[in-house]
UniProtKB/TrEMBL annotation:
It holds the Pfam family Prenyltrans. Residues 53-164 form the Prenyltransferase alpha-alpha toroid domain. It comes from the Bacteria. Keywords: Membrane, Repeat, Signal, Transmembrane, Transmembrane helix. InterPro entries: Prenyltrans (IPR001330), Terpenoid_cyclase/PrenylTrfase (IPR008930). The chain crosses the membrane at residues 379-398. This is Terpene cyclase/mutase family protein. Residues 1-24 form the signal peptide.
Length: 406
C-alpha cells in the first residue's frame, strides 16, 4: 500500500458495500500548497499519512535518517484519541465526529514510528485506539465499525507486532485477528484453493483476491511491512493446500496460491480492475514478493523481484513515494540492492520526493564495497537459509486511492 489498495480490493468494496462512510466529493482538493514536510506532490487527501509512513519506513529500512520535519509532520497528524485519519490539512484543529479515522493509516504510522524509535507515546496511544475499535470477530475494517476485511486486519496485526504486542492475545469477545483471518481464507479445492478473500460478498461467499492474499499471508504470520532477508517462517510449506486450522497453515496455503498466480504471468500479478485493459499490477507484485520472503518461500520471489527491476520504473515514477517505498521493501526482503534496482537508485528517487534526509546511513566507500561485493540478490542472501515460496500484501501496499472511501 503508497497507494494502498489494489483495483481488485476497491472493486470489492464497491460491490460488497463495505461499511465505510461515503465521501461526497472525490475530486482533488482546491489548489493549495501542500506541506513541505510531506512526501509526494499529489493531493494527499486520501493517502497523505499512508504514503508518508511508507516513505519513512523504507528510508529507515535502508539506513537513511529521515528529515526531522517529515517525522514531526506524521506525529502531528494523530488525533487526541490516538487514531490517524488519511490526511488532516490542519493538524492544529481538533479531530471531531466528522474526522474520518482510518485503521490502515493508523497502523502504517505505528509501523513507521516504531521502526524509527523514540515515539512510544504516539504509537502506544495509536495501538490503544486500534484495540478499542476491534470487531467482535477479532478483525478490523478500514473504518471503525466497518466489516472486517483481510487487508485492514493484516496491517493492524503488523502494527501490533511492531510495538511488541502478541496479536493472538489481542482479543475481542475471545476472538483474535488470527480468528478473523481464518474465516476469510478459502478452503482448498476450486478456484480459491487456499487464497484469501477481501470480505465475504452479500451472500457470504468468499472469492479469491490476490491483493488480500498477499496481505493475509503477512497477517497470518504476524508480520509487518518490513521483512528481513533470510527469514524462515515456522509452520508448513510447499505447494499442497491443506485445511487451514491454524494461521500458519492459512499462510502456507495463501503463499502457494500466490506463487501459482505469479507464475501464470511471467512473474507478476495482473490488475483485476473491472472494465480495464489487462495490465500488470506492480504494487501487488511487490507486496507478493515481501510476503513470499516473509514465509521463507523465495524461488518465486526472486523471479518476481527481477521482473519488477526490469519493468516497474515508469510505474514508480508516476505513482510517487509509496511506490518507491514498496519497491525498496521488496528489494530489502529479498536481499536485493535497492540502490541498483534494474539500474535505478530507488533510495535516491524516494528521497527526492520529499524533504532531504538527515543522513544516508552509509558512506560512498561502504556503498561501493557493498555494490561491488554483491550480486542482484546479495551474497549474504544465499549464505542464509534457503527459503521456500510465498505471498504478498496488496494490503501491504498497493494502491490506496480515493475510491477506498466509496
Amino acid at each position: 500500500m503508497n497507494v494502498r489498495r489494489s483495483a481488485a480490493v476497491l472493486a470489492a468494496v464497491a460491490v460488497i458495500g463495505a461499511a465505510t462512510p461515503a465521501v461526497a466529493d472525490p475530486s482533488p482538493s482546491s489548489s493549495q500548497a501542500f506541506p513541505s514536510a510531506l512526501y509526494g506532490s499529489t493531493d494527499p487527501k486520501y493517502d497523505g499519512v499512508w504514503r508518508q509512513s511508507l516513505a519513512l519506513l523504507a528510508q529507515d529500512t535502508v539506513g537513511v535518517k529521515p528529515a526531522a520535519k517529515a517525522v514531526r509532520w506524521l506525529e502531528r497528524q494523530q488525533c487526541a484519541d490516538g487514531s490517524f485519519a488519511s490526511y488532516r490539512p490542519d493538524p492544529t484543529a481538533a479531530c471531531d465526529a466528522k474526522t474520518m479515522r482510518d485503521t490502515n493509516a493508523t497502523s502504517a504510522a505505528v509501523q513507521a514510528l516504531a521502526a524509527l524509535g523514540g515515539h512510544d507515546d504516539v504509537t502506544g496511544k495509536a495501538v490503544d485506539w486500534l484495540k478499542s475499535v476491534q470487531n467482535e470477530d477479532g478483525g478490523w475494517g478500514y473504518s471503525p465499525g466497518g466489516a472486517s476485511d483481510t487487508n485492514s486486519t493484516s496491517v493492524v496485526t503488523g502494527a501490533l507486532a511492531a510495538t511488541g504486542e502478541k496479536p493472538d492475545r489481542v482479543e475481542k469477545d475471545g476472538k483474535s485477528p488470527y480468528d478473523a483471518l481464518l474465516k476469510l481464507a478459502l478452503p482448498c479445492g476450486g478456484d480459491g484453493d487456499g487464497a484469501f478473500a477481501f470480505q465475504p460478498d452479500k451472500k457470504g461467499k468468499l472469492a479469491a483476491n490476490a491483493d488480500a492474499t498477499a496481505a493475509g499471508v503477512l497477517g497470518a504470520l504476524g508480520k509487518g511491512m518490513v521483512v528481513e532477508p533470510g527469514t524462515k517462517a515456522s509452520g508448513p510449506s510447499g505447494a499442497a493446500c491443506a485445511k487451514a486450522s491454524t494461521p500458519e497453515q492459512a499462510a502456507a496455503n495463501g503463499a502457494a496460491w500466490l506463487t501459482a498466480a505469479l507464475a501464470e504471468d511471467d512473474g507478476h500479478l495482473m490488475s483485476a480492475l473491472a472494465g480495464a485493459e489487462p495490465q500488470p499490477d506492480y504494487g501487488n507484485t511487490a507486496d507478493a514478493v515481501v510476503a513470499l520472503a516473509a514465509k521463507g518461500d523465495t524461488a518465486q520471489a526472486e523471479t518476481s523481484v527481477r521482473w519488477l527491476a526490469k519493468n516497474a520504473a515508469t510505474w514508480a515514477a508516476q505513482s510517487g513515494p509509496a511506490a518507491y517505498a514498496q519497491l525498496i521493501l521488496a528489494a530489502h526482503a529479498t536481499g536485493t540492492n535497492p540502490r541498483d534496482f534494474g539500474g535505478a537508485d530507488l533510495v535516491k528517487q524516494l528521497n527526492a520526493t520529499g524533504p532531504a534526509p538527515q543522513a544516508t546511513g552509509r558512506t560512498e566507500a561502504s556503498a561501493a564495497k557493498e555494490d561491488s561485493g554483491s550480486d542482484f540478490f546479495g551474497v549474504w542472501w544465499y549464505v542464509g537459509v534457503c527459503l521456500v515460496a510465498g505471498i504478498g500484501i496488496g494490503f501491504l501496499f498497493t494502491g490506496r486511492k480515493k475510491q477506498q472511501h466509496l
